[in-house]
Design brief:
The complex is a heterodimer of chains A (785) and B (193).
Chain A (H helix, E strand, L loop, with lengths): L11 H16 L18 E4 L2 E4 L16 E3 L3 H7 L5 E3 L25 H8 L19 H7 L12 H10 L4 H8 L3 H6 L67 E9 L37 E5 L17 E3 L9 E3 L12 E3 L10 E8 L4 E8 L2 E3 L3 E4 L4 E10 L3 E5 L16 H10 L24 H12 L13 E3 L2 E3 L1 E2 L4 E2 L3 H8 L4 H9 L6 H7 L2 H21 L4 H14 L16 H18 L29 E4 L2 E4 L6 E4 L2 E4 L5 E3 L4 E7 L15 E8 L2 E8 L11 E2 L4 E4 L10 E8 L2 E3 L7
Antiparallel strand pairs in A: 1-2, 3-4, 5-6, 5-15, 6-7, 8-9, 10-11, 11-14, 12-13, 16-17, 18-19, 20-23, 21-22, 23-30, 24-29, 25-26, 25-28, 26-27, 27-30, 30-31
Helix pairs in contact in A: 9-15, 13-14, 14-15
Chain B lengths: L2 H32 L25 H4 L1 E10 L2 E9 L7 E8 L2 E7 L15 H19 L2 H14 L5 E3 H9 L9 E3 L5
Parallel strand pairs in B: 5-6
Antiparallel strand pairs in B: 1-2, 2-3, 3-4
Helix pairs in contact in B: 3-5
């Protein structure tokens, strides 16, 4: 008899299987992997910042950006082309990729892409240089043997025979005699470069055979910065293999090192199909859009009307006020169509192009590009934003920048009651209500942006240890400049070389090498008996003996003029929020080039770049203080930071280039594997290192000296900061005694924590930076670094 | 038969399966989590000779594991190369100590994983050569002998190739073992640094 219950039971094997599957489901871990958000309305990789969509700089690349939706052109007059040294004129169609429109020269100051070498690009993108040929980089076709020897480190020391492409180039141009070929083969490339004919041989003469040479067939080329190769300015970004695939966050001048500013609520939409005509006669109010030229409260009144988004502030306190000044603010649509506004833009000679006009908009991410409201739709309650770019030229002759007119590249969008990142706001409050104090975390962001006055002085190394304006020590500043200018001689009797052009002659004089054409110098000299005649002789090309020069321009006058000139510059840059080492760097750059641009251009052949001059000024200043026993002023003895972590990381070294990325590496010859636990940022010794986020200092070592390759376990001088939630960051190889903090002290995001050095196991100045979660290192690139 | 017994007889298979899976996952976790290669016993070092001030390491003697790779003597001093393993890092790092009489100190340490070890930075070239040679010999042994290592080297060069640089002590060590390197290797000499 069959048991009635057994007849309903499952076979034993199936019951076991059910048990197995059920248990697996019970114990299955659902692993969530953070995903980059590609929301349907964002067009670009984005993250969220306090609820608002913001670009994820660690994922945004040129190739990830949409194509330009409008065509355009840039026509540069011949007179400007002559001054530029190259013709940046171009045209493009709607649908063109941005990297096919922008030249390296356009974004030289903003992104600094010319600082990349192909080796660095390969490290960041996985590009295999072995499979790349010389013809894949069109810039190389413009090079001559002489320009390559000058640009590529160490190339000149190699015999011609060791560099196959150049050997073939030379031998193919020689008459076919064995002795000729043999004699040049043994010469070094430096010797070949000085030959009138051979040195000017162009790589382009190799023709189609150029594609047969691997990129690595010219030793040292992969380590050569693109900016070292003449003609780099007019190379399109797409013409550099791999460059368009690098995240913006990895650029030498990253567009932003964080998100600074306010979030607004997209309250109401005006415009679109039934465009808003209220402002055909009466100007809008409370605009927060405009340009650098007209400001960002530029209202709109025009015949074709003005479309806009009306905003509100999530931290508005109603009648008590709105610290962000966004309640009722209006972001006006930009462009030259119905409902769109154009405003003045650009500056300098290039500012005249495009009629000197650009779409109204804002710069929540800095001056690299402009964010413009390109479309509004009342029926759907949506706004669409786009990016515009510009062309700048800050070469030997500063031609300024065009208006922002290259665009639009579709960007983020917003819906009513959604959040929009607007950046920092300026101008008066919309409703004239007395403003309550700004919350401390907002004030911190403003201070880090460099636009506010922070009474606690916690941003950067602000202590200059002097009695002059902004706390400048005149002796240290004087020592810093003269250590560069007079090649270290620093003597008041120094007389430089005469230089004459069509407008006359000029000569640098004295300790600070003031040029004889300076009006302030001439005013001093002319007051002295015989001074005018002396000046006339200088103008004619006369090079005076030191004794005569000192009679008309003595040491006391030289120092006074230096102080006078520098005081004006200090006040100028102070008004623009510069202090401490930043101020010193700007003073140096301005002394050298007339501006503070952190540019990579050189004021004269063989001279330092503008940025290098600024850094040398800082280094020389600190060295002078130290030599005079003011070492306690060398480091910030300022107040602790707030210790608050924001959850996002900022780049710890401004302008630092990643020279070695995170992760596994295989040696190309031995096949040995290694694991790099962080990223290396190349930077000059003494460059400021800043906290990537706020937190508490949990580890400090400050006493390692260079040359001890085991100090700090190999890390050298190091700071480790705990940001909470299991996250820590580590900063290694710092300069001796450059860390102003002790264990347990709090630091704010962006606060100075030390200076780039080469302590521990290090072969040159750089920052080794690690990010960890729960004790394990992770790739800093996931934080956009 | 009571209802409880009936239920038990129906569901004991399911319970048994669940317990099986639970035990399997627990045991495998224990095994995988705790598996580490056997560390050969090394001549003990005083704690003062271990890597000092390594970030995140409070007690080097208990948190670090050292495995001696090679050693040499030069001008009255002994030099030893260790592979050092620390918690939560995937690869050991090289660490060199110099011992003279009762004194001992670390002279080279690369926990960051910088890909090229230039031992000659921190010690006389003959020492750098011998320690590198010892490390290479250990790697050859681990690969299963010289022919197997040579094959791996050739495969690596074919796959990656390219101009690269190597410390002169490493080039010397490869030459000592009769291992060919490409002609276009750039040798980084001790005198150039």
């Amino acid at each position: 008899m069959v048991h009635p219950h057994r007849s309903r039971m499952l076979p034993p094997w199936s019951r076991f299987l059910i048990a197995l599957l059920s248990s697996l489901l019970l114990f299955l871990e659902i692993i969530t992997v953070p995903q980059t958000v590609y929301a349907a309305e964002t067009h670009i990789p984005s993250a969220t910042y306090y609820g608002a969509a913001v670009p994820d700089w660690g994922q945004v690349t040129f190739t990830s950006l949409p194509e330009l939706t409008q065509g355009g052109f840039l026509q540069v007059p011949n007179s400007v082309v002559g001054q530029l040294g190259y013709d940046p004129s171009r045209s493009w169609s709607a649908g063109a990729a941005l990297e096919s429109v922008l030249l390296l020269g356009d974004v030289a100051d903003s992104f600094g892409l010319q600082k990349f070498s192909m080796g660095a690009i390969a490290s960041l993108t996985g590009l295999n240089l072995e499979t790349l040929s010389l013809s894949n980089l069109p810039l190389l076709k413009e090079q001559t043997i002489a320009s390559l020897v000058q640009a590529v480190p160490g190339l000149g020391n190699l015999p011609l025979a060791q560099v196959r492409p150049l050997y073939d180039l030379v031998t193919s141009s020689l008459s076919q005699t064995g002795r000729e070929i043999l004699s040049v083969a043994n010469q070094t490339l430096s010797q070949i470069a000085t030959h009138d004919i051979l040195g000017s041989l162009s790589v382009n003469q190799l023709g189609d055979t150029l594609s047969q040479y691997s990129f690595t067939s010219i030793p040292g080329l992969e380590q050569t910065a693109l900016g070292n190769l003449p003609g780099w300015q007019h190379t399109f970004i797409e013409e550099v293999p791999g460059l368009a695939h690098i995240p913006f966050a990895s650029f030498p001048n990253s567009p932003v090192s964080g998100y600074f500013g306010f979030i607004a609520i997209h309250d109401v939409t005006y415009g679109g199909d039934r465009f808003h005509k209220e402002s055909t006669r009466k100007p809008t109010q409370f605009s927060i859009s405009g340009s650098y030229q007209v400001g960002f409260n530029y209202n709109c009144a025009q015949e074709r009307g003005c479309d806009y988004l009306e905003l509100n502030s999530p931290i508005s306190l109603g009648v008590a006020g709105d610290p962000s000044r966004l309640h009722g603010a209006r972001w006006i649509r930009g462009g030259d169509g119905p409902g769109e506004q154009m405003v003045q833009g650009g500056h300098g000679v290039l500012g005249q192009l495009n009629g000197g006009m650009e779409p109204t908009g804002r710069h929540p991410f800095g001056e690299v590009f402009k964010v413009v409201l390109t479309d509004t739709d009342e029926s759907t309650g949506t706004g669409q934003f786009g990016l515009y770019f510009r062309v700048c030229s800050h070469g030997i002759i500063d031609l300024g920048c065009t208006p922002y007119f290259i665009g639009p590249v579709p960007w983020l969008s917003s819906k009513e009651k959604g959040l929009v990142f607007v950046g920092l706001t300026e101008g008066t409050a919309p409703h004239g209500i007395e403003q309550p104090p700004i919350p401390s975390e907002i004030q911190d962001q403003i201070n880090q942006q460099g636009g506010g006055t922070d009474p606690s002085g916690t941003s950067g190394d602000s202590n200059l240890c002097g009695d002059g304006p902004a706390g400048v020590d005149w002796r240290a500043l004087s020592d810093a400049i003269t250590s560069i200018e007079s090649a270290g001689s620093g003597v008041y009797s120094a007389v430089g070389q005469v230089h004459c052009d069509s407008q006359g002659c000029m000569i640098p004089l004295g300790r600070y090498q003031f040029m004889s054409f300076r009006n302030d110098l001439r005013a001093i000299v002319a007051k002295k008996p015989g001074g005018r005649e002396f000046l006339s002789r200088l103008d004619a090309g006369y090079r005076p003996p030191a004794s005569e020069m000192l009679r008309y321009f003595p040491a006391s006058d030289q120092d006074a003029l230096f102080k006078q000139a520098m005081t004006q510059d200090i006040q100028y840059y102070q008004r623009r929020g510069k202090q401490g080492d930043e101020l010193l760097a700007c003073l140096g750059e301005n002394w050298y080039s007339g501006n503070c641009t952190h540019s990579s251009r050189r004021d004269y052949i063989g001279g330092p770049t503008v940025a290098e001059y600024g850094q040398r000024t800082v280094t020389g200043y600190r060295r002078s203080l130290q030599q005079r026993g003011k070492s306690t002023c060398n480091i910030s003895s300022g107040q602790q930071g707030n210790g608050k972590a924001t959850g996002t990381y900022t780049k710890p070294v401004t302008g630092g280039v990643i020279t070695s990325p995170y992760g596994w590496r295989t040696h190309p010859i031995t096949g040995n594997g290694s694991f790099h636990s962080g990223v290396d940022y190349g930077a000059d010794r003494g460059t400021q290192v800043k906290a990537a986020d706020g937190g508490v200092v949990v580890d400090v070592l400050n006493t390692c000296t260079e040359g001890n390759y085991a100090c700090g376990g190999g890390y050298g001088n190091v700071v480790v900061i705990d940001h909470g939630n299991g996250r820590t960051t580590l900063y290694g190889h710092l300069q001796t005694n450059s860390i102003p903090w002790k264990k347990g002290q709090k630091v704010s995001k962006g606060q100075l924590i030390g200076r780039v050095g080469s302590t521990g196991r290090s072969t040159g100045p750089h920052l080794h930076f690690e990010t960890s979660v729960n004790g394990k290192t992770v790739d800093p690139r996931q934080y956009g670094l | 038969m009571t209802l409880l017994k009936q239920l038990f007889r129906q569901w004991y298979w399911i319970a048994g399966g669940s317990i099986t899976v639970l035990l399997l996952s627990t045991v495998s976790g224990i095994l995988i989590g705790s598996y580490t290669p056997t560390i050969a016993s090394a001549p003990s070092l005083p704690s003062t000779c271990l890597p000092q001030n390594l970030p995140g390491i409070r007690n080097p003697a208990s948190e670090l594991k050292l495995k001696q790779v090679s050693s040499t003597r030069y001008q009255g001093k002994e030099y030893r190369l260790y592979d050092v393993t620390r918690p939560a890092t995937p690869m050991p790092f090289p660490y060199v100590v110099q011992i003279q009489g009762a004194s001992c100190k670390g002279i080279y340490s690369n926990p960051m994983g910088d890909p090229d070890d230039y031992f000659h930075l921190a010690m006389p070239l003959p020492v750098a050569r011998q320690l590198t040679l010892g490390r290479l010999q250990a790697a050859i042994q681990q690969a299963g002998g010289l022919p197997a290592f040579r094959d791996r080297l050739q495969r690596s060069q074919q796959q990656y190739g390219g101009v690269t640089q190597m410390a002169e002590e490493e080039v010397w060590a490869y030459q000592q073992m009769g291992l060919a390197l490409p002609d276009n290797v750039r040798v980084v000499k001790a005198t150039t640094r």
